Amino acid sequence: MKKVFYFILLVGLILGMVGCNNNDDKKDDKAKDEKTEQTENKGGATEGENDSDEKETPEQALPDLAEQKTVEMMLEGMPEDKVVKLYQHKELGFSTYVPDDMIVESNPEIFNVYANFGGTKNKDATLKITGQTEEVVTKDLQDNGFTLGKVETKAVDFADKEFSLNKEGMIGHVAFFKHGADDYAIYYYFPEDYAEGFGPRSDIIIKEIVWHDDQS
Question: Is residue 114 within 8 Å of residue 126, measured between CB atoms?
């Protein structure tokens, strides 16, 4: 009888130990699953958490302007009708009209206009509008052989500073100003024999500027 009793007791102990091990294994597995889930979520964005970071700032609405129109231009002291075309520069935030015998070749930093009189493009006869600083523009002009001189009469009404651009055989002007909190510059230069035609066309481009943020 004692042997039977000890045998039953031994079987009971073995079954008890197996049950404990199974419970421990289940607890360990559960703990591992919880730990893995926490690790995967740690530092991860919840749904919609980064939506605000991914949203882009809405573009400034463009003004509703005609694609082209006819304006009066003073040429050699006489009024003349001139067809001008609309150009809109989103990065610099303005629109303007350019005479149809000029070429616009812009990039995000500079609005470039070149003379194309008689179908002949001349990069030495150019007007530029840029958001670059006074220091950058001045250095660029000096690197191109221009010196800056004082002016008695302003050519650009809204300018804070204006200078003449001097180079042999060339005529030029540069105006620095702010729109809102941003720095801008308008400058143009051209050969002396372009004076009668390029000057009046530059006046049109400058006078026709419409700032996009003024339209809201």
Answer: yes
Q: CB-hemisphere CA count at 13 Å for 77?
A: 0
Rounded to two decimals, the pTM is: 0.71
Q: Which fold has domain 68-214?
A: Protein Transport Mog1p; Chain A (3.40.1000)
Distance, CA of 125 to CA of 198 (rounded, Å): 8
β-pair partners for 166: 147, 171
What per-residue confidence (pLDDT) applies to 19? Answer: 52
Reported as a single tens digit per residue, the pLDDT across 41-66 is 333 343 444 444 443 445 667 778 99
CB 188 within 8 A of CB 198: yes
Gap between the Cα atoms of 160 and 46, Å rounded:
50
How many C-beta atoms lie closer than 10 Å to residue 184's C-beta? 23
Among residues 84, 112, 107, 89, which one has the least CA distance to residue 212?
A: 89
Write the DSSP assignment of 37-94 as a string of letters: HHHHHTTPPPTTTTHHHHPPPPPPPPP---SEEEEEEEETTEEEEEEEEEEEETTTTE
Rounded to the nearest 10 degrees, how much is the dihedral formed by the CA atoms of 59, 61, 63, 64? 120
Domain spans in the chain, listed from the N-terminal domain onward: 2-54, 68-214
